[in-house]
Amino acid sequence: MHFAFLGEESLWAAEATECAAEQDAFWEFHDYLFDNHGGENQGAFSKENLKGFAEILGLDTAAFNECLDAGRYTEIVQLQTQAAREIGVQSTPTFLVNAQPLIGAQPFEAFQQVIESFLRP
Fold first, then answer.
1. Mean pLDDT of all residues belonging to the chain
2. Is the pTM of the predicted complex or chain greater than 0.90?
3. Are strands 100-103 and 94-97 parallel, antiparallel or unpaired?
C-alpha cells in the first residue's frame, strides 16, 4: 500500500514504482529511490529524475515514461493514501496488527505484546 503524503514528489515516486513493477522491477526501483533520497520535495524525485532512474536501472524507458506521463497509477496511489489516512496512518512506518496501529520503528517485544493481547481470552 502506498502512503504518498509528502507532496507531489512522493506521489510521483509511488507511481513510478508501479510503472517499474510493470517490468518486474518494483523492488529494484523502490530500493534505488531509498538509496537516492535527497530530502522531501527537494527535486530528487522529479519526473525527469524518476525517468533517469529507470534508464540507469535498464528499464524499457519508452514504456516507463509513457506510464508515468499518462498518470496510469495516480488514482490508485491517491486512493491508497486516502485509505491509509482513514485507518489512522499518519507517518511511516506504521504497522497494523489486527487493526491496532503500532507507530514507528518498534522492537520485536512491542509486536509480541500487541499480538499476545489479541490471543488472551
1. 88
2. no
3. antiparallel
**SS3 category, 4:** coil
Query: What sign for the dihedral angle of Cα 13, 14, 20, 25?
Result: positive
Amino acid at 40: E
Distance CA 94, CA 40 (A): 19
CA distances from 99 to 13, 65, 102, 119 (A): 27, 37, 9, 14
Q: Tell whether omega for the bond before 107 is within 30 degrees of 0, i.e. cis.
A: no
- Is the pLDDT at 88 greater than 90? The verdict is no
Given a cut of 90, whether residue 62 has pLDDT beyond it is yes
The whole-angstrom separation of Cα 93 and Cα 76 is 20
Helix (H, G, I), strand (E, B) or coil at 108: helix
Domain spans of the chain?
Answer: 8-86, 87-121
Return the C-alpha cell found at 120.
488472551
Identify any residues that bridge with 83 across adjacent strands, giving them in sequence order. Answer: none
Burial of 46 per CB tally in 10 Å (0-12, 13-18, 19+): middle
